């Protein structure tokens, strides 16, 4: 069955056919009357015996048909069709430090966490079409499963702030959670205990089971690459982050470590429940505690990737993730999603080709019969 995307042209085609048919009929009638007024019918018949009225009528029919088909083609005829839709990309886990030390104001435009959000926003522009998982950590860890909704990722990170999680810096637990979100077959259920996702989302184990049930090849991670990008100032208070990152690298996950902060560092602001600063975090001596970028600890973490260029120390003012973006863009993409969608198929050529043939035949026809010339 043919559907018309621009049905107004169907009425136009019918009108054109009617008008042309009427015009040719009027012309035929006029010619007959004109010949009748010229004189003796027998003499007129002898003088016009080379004319072929049927050919003239056939040419008129061909013109009417061709014009009608051309106008119908403008109506965009369509038939039902299907199209396979596939989305290809990589899986990336963003592991973001939300400990109190990330409030230190030693980075542009204001503090470490604001700078981290800006760098992630630039990074997401490179990862268009890829799936992103988010792990936010301090003394506790919150996880959000893989998604292609990058705007939701930005909203999530903008809505969190240091102080929303328990005090401390548990990098190891955050890396383990991120690894389990994207490891696919590389992680067993024993290796990755279920972790309740933030906002009441399903756990990573639930996500894996659902993926296996729907399409097993998508749940495995198979041919696509996976990456983990850790944003932190390097001050770990709980766990062994290097061991977890090494485990991730062994599972085939590309590991990037981004140091946020400066070696000079700065005091850690302290805020009340209303979000107003009430002073500085102090030590046992009553003096403000200075938080500095733990460069040596970050180098130790980056060694687990087996590549020296996987450590990035952000400049205090300028963006420094160009290298990370370039390396992520070269990773092997795999199939993330697949489905068959109904999509109408344009069939205007069904009308254009016959119209072309009709015009070609009409142009080759003559109004006169071929007559033999007598030789002397």
Could you explain how this protein is built, in words?
This protein is α/β, with parallel strands linked by helices and 376 residues long. It has two domains: 100 residues, no CATH class; 254 residues, von Willebrand factor, type A domain (Rossmann fold), CATH 3.40.50.410. Helix content is 41%, strand content 19%. The protein contains twelve helices and 15 strands. Strands 6-5-4-7-8-13 form a six-stranded mixed β-sheet, sandwiched between helices. Strands 1-2-15 form a three-stranded antiparallel β-sheet. A two-stranded antiparallel ribbon has the order 3-14. Helix 3 runs antiparallel to helix 12. It starts with a strand and ends in a 12-residue tail after the last helix. The relative contact order is 0.17.
Which sheet architecture does the biggest sheet show? 6 strands, mixed
Topology, number of strands: 15
Strand numbers in spatial order across the main sheet: 6-5-4-7-8-13
Give the terminus-to-terminus CA distance.
Answer: 63 Å
Helix content: 40-55%
Helix-strand blueprint:
Elements lengths: L2 E2 L3 H31 L2 H7 L5 H22 L2 E3 L2 E8 L1 E7 L14 H15 L4 E7 L3 E7 L2 H10 L11 H12 L21 H11 L1 H4 L6 E7 L8 H10 L2 E7 L6 E2 L1 E3 L5 E4 L9 E2 L3 H8 L8 E3 L8 H8 L4 E9 L2 E2 L2 H16 L12
Parallel strand pairs: 4-5, 4-7, 7-8, 8-13
Antiparallel strand pairs: 1-2, 2-15, 3-14, 5-6, 9-12, 10-11
